[in-house]
Design a protein that fits this description.
The complex is a heterotrimer of chains A (535), B (434) and C (149). With 535 residues, chain A is an all-alpha fold. Chain A folds into 2 domains: 97 residues, no CATH class; 389 residues, Na+/H+ antiporter like fold, CATH 1.20.1530.20. Chain A is built from 21 helices and 2 strands. In chain A, strand 1 and strand 2 form a beta hairpin. Chain B has 19 helices and 2 strands. Chain B is globular and about 60 Å long. Chain C has 149 residues and is of the alpha+beta class. A 4-stranded antiparallel sheet of chain C has the order 2-3-1-4. In chain C, helix 6 runs antiparallel to helix 8. The longest helix of chain C is centred in the C-terminal third of the chain and has 14 residues. The chains are: A mainly alpha (535), B mainly alpha (434), C alpha+beta (149).
């Protein structure tokens, strides 16, 4: 449309990128003479990248005392943050002017800036915008973003609406969830049937493992839904129902995922134990990345690990007692998260009523606190935030206006950064050998979402046009799915199929991440619920 | 977890300090000094950090709430804070403002800068040499440079020194002291920024002089600052009036420029300052929103850095270190006010002449708050014990310099029979009710 | 635009005709004001706006001209900004130039009927960041050398 402004913006992005790359080149390759002895073992999220941890050097100062220099990755993170923030925002503007959603711009910039694409363009040792260690440091920001996004999402859910639309929410959710689970589960069963696990574990084990992966496929991103709704200011039956379903699905997902994962890993481990064959016994990949990575991971990992440990020590033989222990853990976690959420929501409401100044910073700090508390107590950031938002918007309605208005303002940088960081995790390098399965997975998942949602809409009697387009909301995947995929990988890393499955999942998630927002925006526009053109 | 907590505490306290209550507290002269010099925050920082309780003999209990290590993990955020300060310093140099300053101000600035570099450069060189026992200049260079650069200029806060019965010449002197202080801060940042990289570490971590490298880096920082400023100007225009978009751009600019400087191993304050200067002097649509956004956080950022200084400092400076701090403070107190009076009265040619005797001259004895920020930035770039102890020396000498004018002022005002001056609400005439 | 109040142009002393109760019934009841008839909309009020955002002063002045409202603009300084200027920490130079005091106070004596348009301008045309603090005060008596409309 408007060519010149677009070109100027692209020029600005190019300048930004050029400055950042120039700076990195001039900073020179750090001379890694002495690796610090206390350094953590190199983290390795996917087997593809033998990540070279930045060395923090042991140096001597003028007094002859030694100290550890800050790691290069840490020092470079500021640039990374700035580039992602400004670049994603600019590209978001550019893409918005040609009809895409801004989120697509954020994501695409993140993908382009990420180390995966960097390795592709300039080679493994070339200088690109972001490095692996930088990316890890950016997770700090990510945790904060999740808390804020959850807070907003919770605030958007009006209980009165949920009560009214309960029928369609629950029915669509049930149909969509089940169909995706079945279709993807079937696909994965077929796929896995030729692998080691089938040879030793039999069909049941294969199906269990397949179902874990299928659960990952059912997830859709609450962040994308929230971000698009706030960008387009969409409101209507489709927007509200989609958001409620997404939030409910997250709750459901946590439970289903924990249960299936435990069952599958038990079965798989049993299968492994019957093998005389020695499977590789490297130390498991560090949890650092997974732990920091997203909403669900840290706790999921803990849970899964605890269960795995229990299994290994042979304490729990009967599956019923195991189930009950999972149940109690889940109740504790969910209940605790909700309780913490109620508390935070109440506190925020109190603050707004009594003090009211510095609202944006207080909210950011509050989100920090939510992330901190969740980590510390093993709670789920997502749920704490959701509950807090829910409590505020439904119990303290008048006050909540202010808070959510402020979050609206904060949301632009938060979304830009969150999606850009999510984008950096995409690695096109892994797509190579498995693309056919990826395409299959993505297409089947799309079909299943469409079919399941259509069925649900029909049964619940939801009216068009919302019913015709609401399925698009369930396509996008981002943080949650990625985090779950990493957990799956960590649980099965010993098996030969793990790498391939992980790469398939990652690539599929990346594709859903990209096409999701585009589809969802189209859906919102077609359903006639968009109120502003976004720009 | 530690990082989260550290950030939470530091930012939270910084925020708390900018509440209305502290503004009220700042009406009293003593509190003005304590708060705007950051001394209170430094003390709180020490309480939070690992050094205070061992200092008073409590060692058993787990008393460290925020460990320097955890704080250093959040270096990118702290660098952003330094970038913020830099942009803030740079934004004040709008050409119209700079042009309107009288020639006298420039002359006093020049005189002070030469004096500071010679006097404090010498003291720092000798003092640090005696303290560290280093046999070469290269290892102690950053410290010498820091102490020299930071000594240029003085605190801009003059309210605590003003007299109730101020005359027109007093007002002129007030302006002179404030403006020179402000410009002195700019010079301090510049000197440290340009000189810091003269000494670098080679591949083995040993110190080497690298003058060409330093010049190259300075030129580079200049180019980068221009580019970032142009980019920033464009982005600010693009963000328009939307608060959310403004937030992206404002934060983005500050983080980006600070990040690049850090990446190049340079104190981020300088690069950010250059960016600020260019940004404010570029023609184009208004950047008033940006200026407001940056300046609004001044007190919060200052408090945060004072807290940081308290947490990061290492008090084990020993007798030579103590002596260095004392000598620096004494030199400041004895030389700077007298020299400034001489320089000001010589270079200001307006009639009526500047007063011969005014408590405002004592303001020249007080360290510029940017000194503290610069010292913290040096610690962040190289978290060595040497730098952490330098920080202690900076704080100590700053505190000593701060105390003297207060007491001198109290004694002086009593002698003058000026009862109003000790009244906490002895506000200047500016704040008359509407 | 402002036809309603222009039909009867004698802003002599309408405020005193009204009872105290009716002047308390202020402009917040926006839609009902016109329905009330000429009497109520002709009351004189003092409109005070405190403009902290310099960028929108231009827009505001244009809008006032469009609405046919006269006014006086006074340079002013917020309490907090006074405090900040007095206690500079890192940057104190900018506070020294007189023309950048910070805020402006816009005063205007006008008919109550026109206030709604001003407020709807503030509400609809400005962002939260730009919106000045604005309020009206009923006027009991009014006198002026030149006639206002």
């Amino acid at each position: 449309m408007k060519v010149r402004p677009t070109l100027t913006k692209l020029g600005a992005i190019a300048a930004l990128v050029a400055v950042a790359i120039l700076a990195r080149m001039l900073a020179g390759t750090p001379t890694q003479v002495e690796l610090s002895a206390s350094g953590d073992p190199p983290s390795q999220a996917s087997s593809e990248s033998p990540a070279s941890e930045p060395a923090s050097r042991l140096l001597t100062d003028a007094l002859g005392l030694t100290f550890e220099s800050p790691s290069v990755g840490l020092l470079e993170t500021g640039t990374g943050l700035g580039v992602l923030l400004l670049g994603a925002w600019l590209l978001g503007k550019v893409l918005a002017s040609v009809g895409f959603s801004k989120i697509t711009g954020y994501l695409v910039f993140g993908i382009l800036a990420g180390p995966g694409v960097g390795a592709w363009i300039v080679g493994k040792d070339g200088t690109w915008l972001l490095t692996k260690p930088q990316q890890e440091n950016l997770q700090l920001v990510n945790d904060l973003a999740i808390a804020l996004i959850a807070l907003t999402a919770g605030g958007e859910i009006k209980l009165s609406f949920v009560r009214k639309a309960f029928r369609s929410i629950s029915l669509i959710l049930a149909f969509e969830f089940t169909l995706v689970l079945l279709v993807v589960g079937a696909l994965m069963t077929v796929l896995l049937n030729g692998t080691v696990i089938a040879e030793y574990g039999g069909l049941v084990t294969v199906m269990l493992v397949a179902s874990v992966i299928a659960v990952v496929a059912t997830a859709n991103s609450p962040a994308v839904v929230m971000a698009l709704l706030s960008e387009t200011r969409a409101d209507g039956p489709m927007a509200r129902t989609a958001l409620s379903i997404t939030v409910c699905k997250d709750l459901l997902l946590i439970i289903v995922f924990a249960v299936t994962l435990t069952l599958a890993s038990t079965a798989a481990t049993n299968a492994k134990q019957t093998l005389a064959e020695d499977l590789p016994t490297d130390p498991p990949p560090t949890l650092a990345e997974a732990e920091a990575s997203d909403e669900l991971t840290a706790q999921e990992v803990l849970l899964a690990q605890e269960v795995a440990e229990e299994l290994e020590s042979g304490e729990l033989k009967s599956s019923s007692s195991k189930q009950s222990s999972i149940a109690s853990k889940l109740t504790r976690q969910l209940g605790g998260s909700m309780l913490a959420g109620v508390l935070v929501g109440g506190l925020l409401a109190f603050y707004v009523r009594k003090v009211r100044s510095f609202l944006p910073i207080v909210l950011v700090l509050g989100s920090f606190a939510v992330a901190l508390i969740s980590k510390e107590l093993g709670l789920k950031t997502l749920i704490v935030g959701l509950t807090a938002g829910l409590v505020m918007s439904n119990l303290f309605q008048t006050i909540a206006e202010d808070v959510f208005h402020t979050i609206e303002e904060l949301s632009v940088p938060v979304y830009a950064l969150f999606f850009a960081v999510a984008g950096t995790k995409v690695d096109p390098g892994v797509l190579g050998g498995v693309w056919i399965f990826v395409v299959l997975l993505v297409t089947l998942r799309l079909g299943a979402i469409w079919g399941g949602t259509a069925l649900g809409c029909k049964v619940s009697g939801m009216e068009p046009p919302a019913s015709r387009w609401i399925w698009t909301a369930f396509v996008p995947q981002a943080g949650v799915s990625l985090a779950l995929a990493i957990v799956v990988y960590e649980q099965f890393y010993e098996f030969k199929f793990a790498d391939d499955v992980f790469n398939i999942l990652l690539s599929a998630i990346a594709i859903n991440e990209l096409i999701g927002p585009i589809l969802f925006k189209l859906g919102l526009v077609r359903a006639g619920e968009v109120r502003s053109k976004g720009d | 977890m530690d990082i989260f907590l550290a950030i939470l505490i530091v930012i939270g306290l910084g925020l708390l300090s900018s509440g209305r209550v502290t503004y009220r507290l700042r009406r009293s002269r003593l509190m003005v000094v304590l708060l705007s010099g950051g001394w209170l925050a430094i003390f709180v920082g020490m309480l939070l950090g690992p050094n205070f309780f061992p200092l008073i003999g409590v060692t058993e209990a787990e008393t460290t709430l925020v460990s320097p290590r955890a704080l250093l993990e959040s270096t990118p955020l702290l660098m952003m804070g330094l970038g913020w300060i830099g942009v803030m310093v740079g934004l004040q140099l709008r050409w119209e403002v700079v042009r309107s300053l009288s020639a006298g101000i420039w002359k006093v600035l020049l005189a002070d800068a030469s004096l500071s570099i010679l006097l404090f450069g010498g003291i720092a060189l000798v003092g640090i040499h005696l303290w560290t026992d280093a046999d070469a200049l290269a290892p102690i260079w950053p410290g010498v440079l820091l102490l020299t650069a930071g000594s240029i200029g003085w605190s801009m806060e003059t309210r605590s020194l003003r007299m109730a019965n101020a005359t027109e010449t007093d007002a002129r002197l007030d302006t002179l002291i404030r403006a020179t202080g402000a410009l002195g801060g700019v010079l301090a940042v510049t000197v440290l920024g340009l000189g810091y990289k003269i000494v670098t570490r080679d591949a083995d971590g040993a110190f080497v002089f690298d003058l060409t490298g330093a010049i190259g880096r300075a030129a580079l920082i200049g180019v980068l600052a221009v580019l970032v400023a142009l980019l920033g100007r464009f982005a600010i225009g693009l963000a328009g009036k939307d608060r959310g978009h403004q937030l992206v751009v404002f934060l983005g600019i500050v983080v980006f420029v600070a990040g690049i400087a850090t990446q190049l191993d340079l104190p981020p304050v300088f690069a950010a300052m250059l960016t600020g200067v260019i940004l404010v002097n570029l023609k184009g649509n208004s950047i008033e929103g940006f200026e407001k956004f940056i300046v609004k956080a001044e007190f919060t950022v200052a408090t945060m850095f004072a807290l940081l200084a308290g947490i990061l400092l290492d008090p084990r400076i020993g007798l030579p270190g103590l002596a260095l701090a004392l000598v620096m403070a004494l030199a400041r107190i004895l030389v700077k006010p007298a020299f400034t009076r001489w320089a000001a009265r010589r270079s200001d040619e307006q009639e009526p002449r500047l007063p011969d005797d005014s408590p405002l001259y004592l303001g020249a004895a007080r360290q510029h708050p940017i000194f503290l920020a610069l010292a913290v930035s040096v610690v962040l770039l190289e978290p060595s014990a040497y730098n952490a102890r330098l920080l202690t020396i900076v704080i100590l000498s700053g505190l000593l310099c701060e105390l003297l004018p207060i007491f001198a002022r109290r004694a002086g005002s009593r002698a003058l029979g000026d009862e109003n001056s000790t009244d906490p609400r002895g506000a200047p005439t500016q704040g008359a009710p509407a | 635009m402002a036809e309603d109040p222009k039909t009867a142009t004698s802003p002599q002393d309408p405020g005193s005709q009204e009872e105290a109760t009716s002047s308390e019934r202020s402009e917040s009841h926006a839609p009902s004001a016109e329905a009330k008839g000429a009497d109520d909309s002709m009351r004189l009020v003092l409109l005070v706006m405190i403009v902290a955002n310099q960028g929108m002063l231009d827009d505001l002045v244009t809008a006032m001209l469009d609405l046919g409202i006269q006014g006086t603009i006074i340079e002013s300084k917020g309490l907090m900004s006074l405090l900040r200027d007095e206690m500079p920490i890192f940057s104190g130079l900018a506070a020294m130039i007189p023309q950048r005091t910070g805020s402006r106070v816009v005063l205007s004596v006008t008919a109550a009927g026109e206030i709604d348009q001003v407020f709807s301008f503030l509400q609809n045309e400005l962002t939260d960041d730009e919106r000045p603090m604005a309020f009206t005060v009923p006027i009991d008596r009014f006198m002026s050398g030149s006639k206002k409309s």
